[in-house]
Design brief:
This protein has 305 residues and is mainly alpha-helical. The protein has 14 helices and no strands. The radius of gyration is 19 Å and the shape is globular. The protein starts with a helix and ends with a helix.
């Protein structure tokens, strides 16, 4: 299994990402973008928080803590990728604005074709080896083929086969989760996920990063006086990143080679997977807090009516 995984790591990553984006696309229609017209302030604020605030927080962490190498690239990659599709589900559980969550996810996913390589170059180009060149063209191609194309294909499926789209989406998401599990197993068996090498300090840094992102997003939403349900949706978008895309880009930029160590690539992968685990735990807390906060807001609105 270990040898097979290392040899085909890139295709494992592509498999899980393509299925995830097919599943997301099969839940989207052009009408989902109506929030841009009805709530331009919330959509614009949420998108700018994703594209500006998150990279700014990552920049602060990298410089303040003197992070370098694979962990720096991992944090930069986390900041450069858009919100994950799971954020829409979590927003629903937290009684947030699901339509807003879907709209921001879709917009930032499309925008990442351009923003991801720019953010990566801004954050960590100076920390990489002298002979490292940021492959902007490669990153854009990977995103277009493995992210945007499956997303569009999923939307077409929903348009042509609306009755079976929900089932199709469900199985695509399950297949994507299977892909993540195979990546974790394969990486562990091949020795790529070394907890001791990653270190407790780096784990604490990732945890602190998520907490700072959540608090920063909440403060900005509060400053802008966004509604409680809009704030919940944006908080979820900020915390829950598209780790599927991050893993695929890692496999493309730092491909594993049988018999050859890859300390930078391994640290990037561990950063992404560890963030993915912790973001789920933080999201559960946001769901509990959001349900309490939004219940009061909804009851207050109903009473006013």
């Amino acid at each position: 299994m270990a040898t097979i995984y290392i040899e085909y790591e890139y295709w494992f990553a592509v498999f899980q990402l393509v299925l995830a984006m097919l599943g997301m696309g099969a839940t989207l229609t052009l009408r989902d973008f109506k929030e841009i017209l009805f709530e331009p302030k919330a959509v614009t604020s949420g998108s700018l928080i994703q594209l500006l605030l998150v990279p700014a927080v990552a920049f602060m962490f990298i410089h303040t803590f003197g992070i370098a190498g694979g962990v720096a690239f991992g944090i930069a990659l986390i900041a450069a990728i858009p919100g994950g599709t799971t954020s829409n589900i979590f927003t629903h559980f937290a009684r947030g604005n699901v339509a807003l969550s879907i709209t921001i996810t879709a917009l930032t996913t499309i925008a990442c074709l351009v923003t991801t390589p720019l953010i990566l170059e801004f954050l960590i180009a100076q920390y990489m080896p002298d002979d490292f060149i940021m492959p902007r063209g490669q990153i854009m191609t990977e995103i277009a083929l493995n992210l945007l194309l499956p997303l569009a294909a999923g939307m077409v499926y929903l348009r042509l086969f609306p009755r079976s789209a929900a089932t199709f989406s469900k199985w695509c998401v399950r297949g994507s989760l299977l892909g993540i599990i195979l990546i974790v197993i394969g990486s562990s068996m091949s020795g790529r996920l070394d907890v001791n090498m990653f270190g407790v300090n780096n784990m604490l840094t990732i945890i602190l990063l998520i907490l700072v992102l959540a608090v920063s997003s909440w403060l900005v939403c509060r400053t802008l006086r966004l509604s409680s349900i809009d704030s919940t949706a944006i908080d979820m978008e900020v915390v829950v990143r598209n780790i599927n895309l991050g893993i695929m880009l890692k496999a493309s930029l730092f491909p594993a080679v049988v018999g050859e160590p890859d300390p930078i690539g391994d640290m990037v992968l561990f950063s992404l997977l560890f963030y993915g685990v912790v973001q789920m735990m933080i999201a559960v807390g946001l769901i509990s807090w959001g349900r309490h906060k939004n219940r009061a807001a909804i009851f207050g609105r109903d009473a006013a009516i």
